[in-house]
Amino acid sequence: MKKLSELLEGLDFEVFSGDFDSHESDLEITQVVYDTRKICEGCLFICLKGANFDSHEKAAWALENGAAALIIERDLPELKGTKGIVLKCDDTRHALSLVSHSFFGHPERRMTTIGVTGTKGKTTTTYLIKSILEAAGHKVGLIGTIETIYGDKRIPSLNTTPESYILAEYFSRMVDEGVDTVVMEVSSQALKMHRTDGILFDYGIFTNIEPDHIGPNEHESFEDYLYCKSLLFSHCKVGVVNGDDPHLKEILKGHTCEVIEFGFGAEDYSASNETLYREGSELGVSFHLSGKEEMDLTVATPGRFSIYNALAAGALALEMGVPKDALKSALKSTHVRGRVEPVKVSDDFILLIDYAHNAMALQSLLQALRDYEPHRIVAVFGCGGNRSKLRRFEMGEVSGKYADFTIITSDNPRYEDPEAIMDDIEVGIKRTASDEKYIRITDRKEAIRHAILNGEGGDIIVLAGKGHEDYQEIEGVKHHMDERDLISEVLLEEGALDSEGNLRRNWLKDR
């Protein structure tokens, strides 16, 4: 339990109802709650306005059912004179973040905190940082799009950046596990919704920014998206930023941190002499790092975007004093689930799983793969339902232009007809490819089967859009569907595996 006065440290508020200035300011709070379903005796309930529900409507009910105190952000005359203490502030999401960290004893102050923001590359960069720092002897926690990791715990993520209370709770658990450094993805939505308020990050990293997440319940404009991303750099001590990004000036507007730049033209950490790296089914890129440090580095994923991710992680690590050998070995050996992830199915061609789920990411990936001069690039993808139709047209157009053959399939149809979604993708692909350059196979497993069984020597096959996801959402229900499992099922059914479950050599030729 915590005293109410302790929980309110750093928060500007006014007393709306109750005698806060008396002994009640030392009221013992049993729990901090923001979900009406978790109201308990003696709790502090913080009212939040969400997209679909405003819990201010349950404020009086919360007091009647055991809440000892409330924090609200709008006038509720019906609470005047009721039992308990009612406090009012300008933004209850900001209050929730500050109060949550206080409730758990400010665990964020007992670790080195690293926040990574940007349109692309956040997930890969956080995993690279984790691997590099662990190679140097640090005990590292991670919070991001795929999962939260600390000790031997791996918790699947619902949001890229969790709600502030959950974030503070994760930090507390990490401290208990002996974690000394936490690296986390910080989304623009998290910054907009005050989920990281109260945290002064030791390091903030900016990967890049391009128009994305603009629409209802996200950002009203690209300018708003830019502004929200920029907030990280007034809440960190050192900013490690992409000096090549054309919007860097806007990102650093109002910054209060020391700035370290990386890029192909940066003075602090600069990349040059990029060369392709290929070893079996593994595709990567090597480059020379100069500036504050000089060394040659290899990263185990292809494309110039991989160099930027490696620069971001490498610059951060070197600023933290990581030895060069630890940096080199970790960069070369780290693979991130669902990010240009190779899955061995044949000695003759390469199969990759990637999260590219919009036109911008798909184009970047396909262009990077083209540099390896494959016999063909085969793209297998669909688009999510109840999302922008424009994305479907654009992804179809991009695949038609940059892939040699496309298999249109289903992704997460949600509440839409998968065939209707595929119709929209087909509209786009017809703009850049002839009819013989694509096929429609609605069932994703069968689409993968077709890609594998028709693979040709030197092909690169890309399963795009699902990446780390292990489900398919249909009519509001998430059904288990992991592409790695689908691939294994196809290999088993097609007789590609021996009695011990190992891939038989030349199994395709022997069929």
Could you characterize what this model shows?
With 511 residues, this protein is an alpha/beta fold. The chain has 3 domains: 2-103, 3-Layer(aba) Sandwich (Udp-n-acetylmuramoylalanyl-d-glutamate--2,6- Diaminopimelate Ligase, Chain: A, domain 1); 107-333, Mur-like, catalytic domain (UDP-N-acetylmuramoyl-L-alanine:D-glutamate ligase, 3-Layer(aba) Sandwich); 341-510, Alpha-Beta Complex (Protein-Tyrosine Phosphatase, Chain A), CATH 3.90.190. The protein is 31% helix and 24% strand. Strands 11-10-9-12-8-13-14-15-16-17-18 form an 11-stranded mixed beta sheet, with helices on both faces. The mean pLDDT is 94.
Note the beta-strand portion.
15-25%
Output the radius of gyration.
Answer: 25 Å
Task: Classify the fold: give the CATH topology of the largest domain.
Answer: UDP-N-acetylmuramoyl-L-alanine:D-glutamate ligase
Widest β-sheet, arrangement of strands = 11-10-9-12-8-13-14-15-16-17-18
State the CATH architecture of the largest domain: 3-Layer(aba) Sandwich
Major sheet, described briefly?
11 strands, mixed
Distance between the termini: 67 Å
Helix percentage? 25-40%
Return the average pLDDT rounded to an integer: 94
Number of strands: 26
